[in-house]
From TrEMBL:
Transmembrane segments: none
Organism of provenance: Rhodococcus olei
Pfam families documented for this protein: MaoC_dehydratas
Lineage: superkingdom: Bacteria
Domain MaoC-like: 24-112
Stated family: Belongs to the enoyl-CoA hydratase/isomerase family.
Protein name as it appears in the record: MaoC family dehydratase
Length: 161
C-alpha cells in the first residue's frame, strides 16, 4: 500500500462546499456481521427475532450506519486530501432505521474552516446519508485537522489541540 499523494488542501474546499460521496448498498449479511461484532442486539443479529421487535424486522446498528458514512468519506474525500486526524464528533443523529437492501447516498458539507498559525486548518463538516427516496437517514457534524501545506516536525498532539 502506498500513501496517496495530497491533491486537496483546505483552500480547495471552502465553507459551503458540498462533496458527493457516492452510494452504499446495505446487505443483510453486512448488518448481521457488524452487529455480531460490535452491537449484538437481536434486532441487528437475528432476522427472525427482529420481526418481533419494535422495528418489525432486521435493522442496521446506528454505529454501522455511521461507519458506512465514514467509509464513504474516506474513499471519496479524505483520500488525497491533507487530513491529519479527526478531532471529534460534535453531534450525530439517526433519523430512521436502515434496513437490508437500502441504498444510501452520502454527502459532506463544509460548515467552517479555521486556518491556524501552526500551518493547519480546523475543518468542521456535516456528513449526511440519504435513502434512495432522499429521506435523511443519518447526519453527523465533526471536526478534523488538515494540513494547510506540507508539515514537518510537528507532533500529533500539537496538531490536534
Amino acid at each position: 500500500m502506498t500513501i496517496p499523494a495530497v491533491k486537496r488542501y483546505p483552500p480547495d474546499f471552502p465553507v459551503g462546499t458540498v462533496i458527493q460521496l457516492g452510494h452504499w448498498k446495505v446487505t443483510t449479511e453486512e448488518i448481521i456481521q457488524f452487529a455480531t461484532m460490535w452491537d449484538p442486539q437481536y434486532f441487528h443479529t437475528d432476522a427472525d427475532l427482529a420481526k418481533q421487535s419494535f422495528f418489525g424486522g432486521l435493522v442496521s446498528s446506528g454505529l454501522h450506519t455511521q461507519a458506512i458514512l465514514h467509509r464513504l468519506q474516506i474513499e471519496n474525500f479524505y483520500v488525497g486530501s491533507s487530513i491529519i486526524a479527526g478531532r471529534g464528533i460534535k453531534s450525530m443523529r439517526m433519523f430512521l432505521p436502515v434496513r437490508p437492501n437500502t441504498i444510501l447516498r452520502g454527502e459532506l458539507e463544509v460548515l467552517d474552516l479555521v486556518t491556524r498559525p501552526d500551518g493547519t486548518s480546523l475543518v468542521t463538516t456535516c456528513g449526511r446519508l440519504f435513502t434512495s427516496d432522499e429521506t435523511l437517514a443519518l447526519e453527523q457534524v465533526g471536526e478534523a485537522v488538515f494540513s494547510s501545506h506540507p508539515i514537518t516536525g510537528a507532533t500529533q498532539q500539537e496538531l490536534c489541540t
